[in-house]
């Protein structure tokens, strides 16, 4: 993305051209950026030779899953619906792992029928349920146990998952007890230790703590894990100031801390693959004068893009064309929905905007459309992908008739 003659260009296409050709709001992905992220991820962890399972909850667009699959990725799913979509996109079930604290019996049965790589269990009762179904079917089932390593990921508290007060995984003591239980089970095969401590992690230090906990449990367990699934969480540069996780440093930590272990490493990245590949193009409906700031009311809202409303996530907002001069007052960028949290950002100094201008919310590829809803009976927006100078529609805008 760059400005050429003060107009924003994505790959080789003018953003204003896209906004006028289709109706806003529009999620626009760059295939080149996606490819770049995938190759960078693979290269950073080359020495480890991991199985990379894309986190489908970060973006479950079928066309995107199909593109990612072409790079030998598997999938990490957290519901029966996501599993079905991953399979529909052509992802090999032998490369699919199923995580989540509340898998229902029918979801477990579906996963067993599809012979996926691993069901990563998160509690004793879930293991009992998987065992019950495996016994009924007389089928061997490969499982993992998710360790809660009691590690602070130093990220937004709402997306931290690896502390002992979080609902995810089991602590070290329970983990070791569960191994003994599974060893006696006729149909359960314990293949994997999994962890995932949270999302948008910017330093390798929390990961080092996590790895030490993982290593300790492996040593205490005396069990040969075929897989160690380290989850995802790698943070990206939302504020465009070069603060992102250094993947190579993380790779070195893994080699250093898990050196005596020869398990196959699994990663479950979502955000670091898809986050910065998309922008949300939206039009200014009104500029409304406020007391100390002006409200820029957009045709995109929290139903289209929920991260700021859900956990105060910060995203860059930029104009599609740069006018001369700046706004007199601070701009608050908001949607039309009847909620005070329907707000994207407050920006002090911004290029002057007038009604019908287009603006762009950056880095919306992860947890963008996958978190979107029909709140206020608003249809979900169009999704397109730019490949060089080609434009591909990868999800049509929902019709109001589908919402009746
Ligand atoms: C959400 C999630 C991920 C992906 O996290 P990112 O921060 O998007 O990389 C991976 N594994 C599990 C178990 C998850 O819940």
Describe the structure.
This protein is α/β, with parallel strands linked by helices. It folds into two domains: 2-29 and 275-403, Lyase, Ornithine Decarboxylase, Chain A, domain 1 (Beta Barrel); 31-274, Alanine racemase (TIM Barrel), CATH 3.20.20.10. It has eleven helices and 20 strands. It has helices spanning 15-21, 31-44, 62-69, 80-88, 105-113, 124-137, 172-183, 204-221, 247-257, 271-274, 307-311; strands spanning 2-4, 7-10, 13-14, 26-30, 51-55, 74-77, 96-98, 118-121, 141-146, 188-194, 227-229, 264-267, 278-289, 293-298, 317-319, 330-334, 343-347, 358-361, 382-387, 390-395. Strands 4, 13, 14, 15, 16, 17, 18, 19 and 20 form a nine-stranded mixed β-sheet that branches. α5 packs across α6. The longest helix is centred in the middle third of the chain and has 18 residues, at 204-221. 43% of the residues are buried. The mean pLDDT is 96.
Broad CATH class of the largest domain? Alpha Beta
**Count of separate DSSP helical elements:** 11
- What is the number of beta strands? 20
How would you sum up the global shape?
A: elongated
Rounded mean pLDDT is 96
The fraction of residues in strands falls at 15-25%
CATH topology of the largest domain: TIM Barrel
Could you outline the blueprint of secondary structure elements for this entry?
Elements: E1 2-4, E2 7-10, E3 13-14, H1 15-21, E4 26-30, H2 31-44, E5 51-55, H3 62-69, E6 74-77, H4 80-88, E7 96-98, H5 105-113, E8 118-121, H6 124-137, E9 141-146, H7 172-183, E10 188-194, H8 204-221, E11 227-229, H9 247-257, E12 264-267, H10 271-274, E13 278-289, E14 293-298, H11 307-311, E15 317-319, E16 330-334, E17 343-347, E18 358-361, E19 382-387, E20 390-395
Parallel strand pairs: 4-19, 5-6, 5-12, 6-7, 7-8, 8-9, 9-10, 10-11, 11-12, 14-16
Antiparallel strand pairs: 1-2, 2-3, 4-13, 13-14, 13-18, 15-18, 16-17, 19-20
């Amino acid at each position: 993305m760059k400005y050429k003659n003060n107009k924003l260009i994505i790959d080789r296409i003018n953003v204003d051209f896209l906004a006028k050709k289709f109706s806003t709001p529009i999620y626009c992905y760059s295939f080149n950026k996606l490819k770049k992220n995938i190759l960078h991820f693979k290269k950073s962890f080359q020495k480890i030779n991991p199985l990379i399972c894309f986190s489908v909850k970060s973006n479950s667009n079928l066309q995107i899953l199909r593109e990612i699959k072409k790079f030998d990725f598997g999938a990490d799913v957290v519901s029966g619906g996501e599993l079905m979509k991953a399979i529909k996109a052509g992802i090999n079930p032998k490369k699919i792992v199923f995580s989540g604290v509340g898998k229902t019996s029918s979801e477990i049965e579906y996963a067993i029928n599809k012979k996926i790589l691993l069901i990563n269990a998160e509690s004793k009762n879930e293991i009992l349920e998987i065992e019950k179904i495996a016994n009924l079917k007389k089928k061997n089932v490969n499982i993992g146990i998710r360790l809660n390593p009691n590690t602070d990921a130093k990220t937004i508290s709402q997306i931290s998952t690896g502390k002992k007060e979080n609902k995810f995984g089991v602590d070290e003591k329970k983990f070791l007890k569960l191994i003994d239980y599974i060893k006696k089970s006729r149909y359960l095969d314990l293949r994997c230790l999994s962890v995932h401590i949270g999302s948008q992690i910017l330093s390798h230090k929390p990961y080092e703590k996590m790895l030490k906990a993982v290593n300790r449990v492996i040593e205490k367990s005396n069990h040969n894990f075929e897989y160690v699934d380290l989850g995802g969480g790698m943070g990206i540069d939302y504020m465009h100031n070069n603060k992102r996780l250094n993947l190579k440093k993380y790779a070195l930590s893994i080699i250093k801390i898990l050196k005596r272990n020869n398990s196959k490493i699994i990663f479950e990245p979502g955000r670091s693959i898809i986050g910065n590949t998309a922008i949300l193009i939206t039009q200014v409906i009104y500029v409304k004068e406020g007391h100390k700031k002006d409200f820029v009311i957009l045709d995109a809202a929290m139903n289209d893009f929920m991260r700021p409303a859900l956990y105060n996530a910060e995203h860059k907002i930029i104009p599609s064309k740069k006018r001369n001069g700046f706004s007199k007052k601070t701009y608050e960028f908001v949607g039309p929905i009847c909620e005070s949290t329907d707000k994207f950002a407050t920006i002090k100094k911004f290029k002057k905007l007038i009604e019908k201008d287009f603006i762009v919310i950056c880095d919306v590829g992860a947890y963008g459309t996958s978190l979107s809803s029909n709140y206020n009976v608003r249809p979900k927006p169009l999704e397109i992908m730019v490949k060089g100078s080609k434009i591909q529609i990868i999800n049509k805008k929902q019709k109001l008739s589908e919402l009746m």
